[in-house]
Each structure stands twice: as structure tokens, then as C-alpha cells.
Amino acid sequence: MRRTRIGAGAALAAGALAVTGLAFAPAALAVTPATATINADCGSFGGGESTLTATQSGTSATITLKSSAVTAPIALGADSISSKLTLAKAGGGSVEFTGKVNPAMAAGDPVQVGPLPGTVASGDSLEAFGGSLEMSVFGITITCTATGPQSPGPFVFD
């Protein structure tokens, strides 16, 4: 009888250790690449290199865009830029990431918007080239488009 209790106790301890190991295992990166760069043209507002950073949690994803090539023309308060980032979907269609999320920026600071939320499906391959970024600041709409494919490649979501 004692051997049965020890065996059951050992099995429970091993199971608990296995569950604990899973709980502390590092999370898998859900979107690859996590960061990509594009060259963007924003018309008379400028243009140049921008960095896109993507995150994913299930079907929810966010994209943050930072650009040192496009700067704030005036001081802007936090959450004062309405943004719509449209990414082209491989095979046709598009996915939109929208929101009014940005840090406060002084005049001349690099523009940053996001994290902008959107919905993705497993296997979605999204690319900035063929899409656009529309930012509305004080009633003025600024539209930026990528001049070529993003590097190192499109965002692929799990």
C-alpha cells in the first residue's frame, strides 16, 4: 500500500512540474517579422524610411509606425492623430488598423502613431506596399504610401 501512495505522489509531483514548466515557458512569437521598414511618400509632408512594429494575440493585432523622415509640423498632444493604416493582403483584399493613438510630440519630433488595433486571421500575409496610411490632424488629412515592398518581407500572422 505504501508503494502505491509513493508512486501516485511521484506522478502528481511530475505532473505539477510539467504544468509549471509550461506556464513559465517563453511565449512563441505570433507574427514574423516583428519589425519591418518601408520607404514612404507623404506628398508635400515629406517622406523617407519608416519602421512598422507588429504584435499579435489571437485574432487581435496591433501595428505601430515610427518615422524620423516625417516630423510633426507643430506640437501635438497625445492621442490627437486619427490614423487608418491599410495593409495589402496577399491574394487580394486588405486589413485596416485604425485608432487615435499617438504619444505627445513637439514640433519637429519624428511622427509616431499606434499601436493601432486590427483583426487578423491565421495565415494572413500583410504588406504596406499597396496599402496606405491616412493621418488626420486638426482636420488636415495626410496620406502616405509605401514606394516599394517592406523589408525584410510581409508580416505573416499565426
TrEMBL record:
It comes from the Bacteria. Keywords: Signal. The keyword Signal applies. Residues 1-30 form the signal peptide. The keyword Signal applies. This is Secreted protein. It comes from Streptomyces coerulescens.
